[in-house]
Amino acid sequence: MDSGAGIFVELTDPSDENNYYFWRNDPSVYLLQTRSDLFFNRTTMMLEPKDCCTRCFNHETTGNTSYSLTNDETFEGLKIILKVPFIPDNGLRFIEIYRMDLNQLSITAEAYRFLHLVKQQSETTGSVFDPPPANIRGNMLGPDTPDEVVLGYFMVAGETERRIYIFGDELEFPQPVSLILNDCRLVDTITSAPPVDWNVVRD
Q: How many CB atoms lie within 10 A of CB 166?
């Protein structure tokens, strides 16, 4: 069964105007449990313990490709609680502590339409009943080839950010724990030292 952490935001929508919201999260960091003393060399077929740490920090961009969007068509001027990015549990992320920075952006109607089309197309299941892929045009043009389709959209948005620490013992349905049976420092995104701004806060 799939499980993970669902993130919710409480939003008070300004009245008498159309508003469009976009949530995304910056690269996240989480604690890993490692057992380099159990490293097994498949070439020699022998147990070859390595001298490393038992806890490491992994940096990843998971969640950035699954952003959230909405407009205030159904909650104009109201206070509402919305579910935004869902972070799946892969047996590694929520062993101890997972940190994410959630960004809320107020965007234009044009930016909303572009992002909505991109999200809709990226989540297409691939069945025979799916609509054909749309030719999504952004607001970027090549200076020498204005008719060429350029992927991307330039936007300016009002932004607020919230740093969130998620603790593994808070998950109702945690996945079985996966251990790194090697020197964690051999992986590009992993370090043995915490980030300089690692300041765990439990709400």
A: 19
Whether pLDDT at 135 is above 80: no
Q: Where are the alpha helices (DSSP H) in the chain?
A: 109-122
Cβ–Cβ contacts within 10 Å for residue 27, how many? 14
What's the N-to-C CA distance of the chain in angstroms?
28
Tokens of 114: 């572009």
Q: How far apart are CA 5 and CA 8, in angstroms?
A: 10
Give the model confidence (pLDDT) of 153-201 as tens digits.
888 898 999 999 999 999 999 999 888 888 888 877 888 888 899 988 8
- Map residue 21 onto helix, strand or coil: strand
- Identify the structural domains of the chain with CATH numbers, from first to last: 4-108+157-191 (2.60.40)
List of residues 6+ apart from 122 with CB closer than 8 A: 65
